[in-house]
Each structure stands twice: as structure tokens, then as C-alpha cells.
Design a protein that fits this description.
- The structure is a single chain.
- This protein is an alpha/beta fold.
- About 30% of the residues lie in helices and about 25% in strands.
- The protein has 6 helices and 12 strands.
- It has an 8-stranded mixed β-sheet, sandwiched between helices.
- Bound molecules: cytidine-5'-triphosphate and calcium ion.
- Cytidine-5'-triphosphate binds next to α3 and β9.
């Protein structure tokens, strides 16, 4: 995209974007993680900066990605570190977008030394405990006029379609906008040529056409800019 073709509609706005996956340590050398690449969050940060926003990117683990120009990057590893970093930046932000894949659970204990296998001990069991829900905490701490955006990857199943699950998640999370990626084998059947949906707390629902992560980022910022304008007036 030509840089001069982009609108500067986010000028003067402070934006926080989280990206990538968290890692939850089991012992000094092992962790529970996920396959998030971080590409969508990085694209959101890059496009927001191009459109004039002051952007902080809270990045968990990602594939190797170019640092978006003009973006402040804070690197974190665990969900708890991401929680602290996001909360701190969000306090003065106009818009917070949680694009990160935050681990729902962490090992209940972190072994001080490398876990060893042994023939006279039973094999270990990993006990998990819940991580805090960062998005839910952001919603609870939302400052007046602040826009909070969540992401969700959903598949349709016997309990409902992608859209059914997404509507329920939007309600449960209480965020202003939910960006829903339709994933998995059911996608073509579920949503035809759509990559997902953009759901707003006011009930507006828009399909997101299949496209690049930059295009999805542009679609999200269009919606956020629109929403922010109305939440201010
Ligand atoms: N999220 C978060 N903190 C967590 C888990 C999720 O902030 N501990 C955020 C994600 O960054 C995303 C949104 O919540 O923006 C939805 O994540 P998702 O995993 O789809 O939702 P969950 O409530 O964890 O539900 P599920 O049981 O389907 O995983
Ligand atoms: Ca989850």
C-alpha cells in the first residue's frame, strides 16, 4: 500500500496492541506455549502507526518479524508479564487491541530445577491453574471513551456456528468490538468466502472478507476509528 494513500485518522490517539503467544514455564528449560505467529498483531501496530497513532506493541513470542517503524515495543514472555505490561500502557491509552494468544492456563508450579525422568518415580502430571483474563480486566478498568477490542478464533461445532460462538464471547467479554477469525475445516462451509466477522457491542455485525493481515488490520482500524468517534460524542 502507498503510505501517502493511508488516512491519518488515528492522529493524536494512543493505541496499545498485544501480539504473539505467551509461554508458561514448567522448569528452567521447558514451557507450555502456542503457535501464534504474532503477524496479525504486528500488522495492526504497523497500520495504526502509518495512520498517525502513537503505538505501543506488547509482544509475546512471535516468529521473526520486522519491527514496525515508529512503534514502541515492549517484550514479554508469560501471560502474567503481558497482563502487567498491557495494564500499564492501557492506563493512558485511547484504544487497546488484544490480538495476543494469551495462555488460559499455566503450570501450577514452576520446578526450580530441570525435571528429570526416573525409573523408580511415577511419571509426572502437569497441574494447571488459570491465568487472569487480561481482556476482561481491561473492560472492567476501562476509562471513559476508551475503546477495547478483542480477538477470537472460532470454529463452528455441534453447539453452534462461528457467529453464535462469537456473539456469546462478545457478551461474555464485554469489549466494544470483537474481531472473529473463522478457523478450521468448517470455515468454507460456515462463512463462505469470509475470513470472519467484526462484531460491535451495539449489535452491528460485519463480515470481514478473506484478505491479507494488513487488509484485516485496515478493516479493524476503520471500525475502531468509527467507534471511537461515537463513544466520544
Ligand atoms: N484473552 C486475554 N486473557 C486471557 C485469555 C484471552 O486477554 N487470559 C483475550 C485474547 O487476547 C482475545 C480474547 O481474550 O482478545 C479472546 O480470547 P479467547 O481465547 O478466544 O477467549 P477465552 O475467553 O479464553 O475463551 P476460550 O475458552 O474459547 O479460549
Ligand atoms: Ca483462550
Amino acid at each position: 500500500a502507498r503510505r501517502d494513500a493511508l488516512p491519518r485518522d488515528l492522529e493524536g490517539l494512543r493505541v496499545v496492541v498485544s501480539a504473539g503467544g505467551t509461554r508458561e514455564p514448567l522448569d528452567p528449560v521447558r514451557y507450555l506455549g502456542n503457535r501464534s505467529s504474532g503477524k496479525q498483531g504486528y500488522a495492526l501496530a504497523r497500520v495504526a502507526a502509518q495512520r498517525g497513532a502513537e503505538v505501543t506493541l506488547v509482544a509475546g513470542h512471535t516468529v521473526v518479524l520486522p519491527e514496525p517503524p515508529g512503534v514502541t515495543i515492549t517484550r514479554v514472555s508469560t501471560a502474567e508479564e503481558m497482563r502487567v505490561a498491557v495494564r500499564e500502557s492501557a492506563a493512558s491509552a485511547d484504544i487497546v487491541v488484544m490480538a495476543a494468544a494469551v495462555a488460559d492456563f499455566r503450570p501450577a508450579g514452576r520446578a526450580e530445577y530441570k525435571i528429570k525422568k526416573s525409573d523408580d518415580q511415577p511419571d509426572p502430571t502437569i497441574v494447571l491453574e488459570r491465568n487472569a483474563d487480561i481482556l476482561a480486566e481491561l473492560v472492567a478498568a476501562r476509562t471513559p471513551g476508551q475503546v477495547v477490542v478483542g480477538f477470537a478464533a472460532e470454529t463452528g461445532d455441534e453447539h453452534g456456528s462461528v457467529l453464535d460462538h462469537a456473539r456469546a464471547k462478545l457478551k461474555r467479554k464485554g469489549c466494544d468490538l470483537l474481531v472473529v477469525n473463522a478457523v478450521g475445516d468448517g470455515r468454507a462451509f460456515e462463512v463462505e468466502d469470509n475470513a470472519g466477522w467484526l462484531l460491535a457491542a451495539d449489535g452491528e455485525e460485519r463480515p470481514i472478507p478473506l484478505g491479507s493481515k494488513s487488509q484485516l488490520a485496515a478493516t479493524v482500524w476503520d471500525a475502531v476509528a468509527h467507534f471511537h468517534q461515537y463513544s466520544r460524542s
